[in-house]
Amino acid sequence: MTVRAMMMGFGFAISIFASDMAQAASFDCDAKELKPDEKTICDNRALNDADVKMVTTFELLSGLLAMGARGTLQDEQTAWLKKRQECAADAVCIKAAYDERLKQLGESYKNINRPL
Fold first, then answer.
1. What is the pTM of this model?
2. Domain tally, the chain
3. Which of 16, 18, 26, 96 could disulfide-link to 55, CB 3.0 to 4.6 Å?
């Protein structure tokens, strides 16, 4: 399979998952103890959509990576979540965090088939 075909399939898969989960953040918005960033995401449709897109991209990418690279990806995700939490209720900061993470995940995806 060519890289182009994989990228097209990846984009298609994201659009399907995102449409199925259009109003579902990656965490329970009805939970009693939401952190400030989570509450802001639940209250803001654009941030909610960014969360769904990021989680879907992360999960699809995780499935394509070898075990060592998958561990690195998970460590990066954990660090990113801490960074997002530092935004507290600042929607602009949260949006910037999602934009940055989606860009990073996209770059990781592009590099999957590159020679070592």
1. 0.77
2. 1
3. 26
